[in-house]
Design a protein that fits this description.
Elements (H helix, E strand, L loop, with lengths): L15 H5 L9 H7 L4 E5 L4 E3 L7 E7 L2 E6 L5 E7 L4 E2 L1 H6 L6 E4 L3 E7 H10 L1 H25 L4 H12 L12 E4 H8 L3 H16 L6 E3 L6 E3 L5 H11 L10 E6 L11 E4 L5
Parallel strand pairs: 9-12
Antiparallel strand pairs: 1-8, 2-7, 3-6, 3-8, 4-5, 4-7, 10-11, 12-13
Helix pairs in contact: 5-6, 6-8, 7-8
């Protein structure tokens, strides 16, 4: 609708449960928290809404409470390039906010999402007054650099299986996306948008990954009940899992123990089939 209120116009204060999911708030001292919390806002983004638009000045530092976002840009040739996905708990764009620049990318909601924002001026006030906040932002920047280096490596991979595996691993990064916990819900179509492959190719890649998982032996639990596949690595010997992760080009350090990737949609045997893949590291 042309007269529908904008994302900015739909903003509201965060609820207590939403505040509990903001990962940097625990790093603040009481006085710093009292300054920041009243400034935080959250808004419901509909699928297709642009949270950040290329060329627009940054006015908020954004974080995802719930949903799924895509960071992308358009080349001079008109080709869409996806940089990364953003999953729950992820706060993004701190580099742009630090420099008070215009966005060099778009952030778009792939599904209905709750997006929180901290005004740029409050962000800089916290940088000037909070050691804990500075450490959080520095850790974010360091992890983000590693993420984009990994993304460049992924772009050079010709194997769809490797690209899908690496992309899934990035979406459950416990530092950048602490709100994911042990369950990430994503459809094959959403995954296709993020990986830059067709849905059919993503489907084929997932099937190939499941085959390689089955080759791990009895330690890997495989369950196809209810049209979903669940693979649990918990009982797989560490050296066997390490070899598989290396072959699949997954960075084991980016995966929390028993991280779950729930790929919803369709039924077994259907071209739209997908399932739940549990990528958990063995207990140390």
């Amino acid at each position: 609708m042309a007269n529908a209120p904008s994302l900015h116009e739909r903003r509201r204060l965060l609820t207590d449960s939403e505040l509990a999911g903001v990962p940097w708030l625990p790093h603040l001292q009481p006085a710093e928290r009292e300054r920041a919390v009243p400034e935080l806002r959250v808004s419901e983004a509909e699928p297709g809404d642009l949270v950040c638009r290329f060329g627009r000045p940054a006015t908020y530092w954004f974080g995802l409470i719930d949903g799924l976002l895509k960071m992308s840009a358009v080349t001079e040739q008109g080709r869409d390039i996806t940089y990364t996905g953003v999953t729950p708990g992820g706060w993004f764009g701190e580099g742009t906010v630090l420099k008070r620049e215009a966005y060099r990318y778009n952030i778009q909601a792939l599904r209905k999402s709750r997006v929180a924002g901290l005004p740029v001026d409050t962000f800089h006030w916290l940088l000037d007054h909070s050691i804990g906040f500075n450490r959080f932002v520095m850790n974010q920047l360091n992890e983000r650099l590693a993420q984009f280096i990994g993304a460049r490596e992924t772009d050079r991979l010709h194997s769809p299986e490797q690209r899908v595996a690496r992309s899934l691993a990035a979406l459950v990064n416990p530092v950048l996306f602490p709100g994911v916990g042990d369950l990430l819900r994503i459809t094959q179509q959403e995954l296709a948008y993020l990986v830059g492959l067709s849905r059919q190719r993503v489907n084929e890649a997932l099937r190939a990954l499941q085959t390689s998982v089955a080759a791990l032996g009895s330690g890997a639990q495989l369950n196809l009940a209810g049209g979903r596949a669940t693979v649990n690595f918990k009982r797989v010997p560490a050296e066997t899992l390490a070899a598989w992760l290396t072959q699949a080009r997954i960075n084991a350090r980016a995966l929390p123990t028993d991280a779950r990737l729930n790929l919803d949609a369709g039924t077994a045997g259907d071209a739209r089939w997908s399932g739940t893949v549990v990528l958990g590291l063995p207990e140390r």
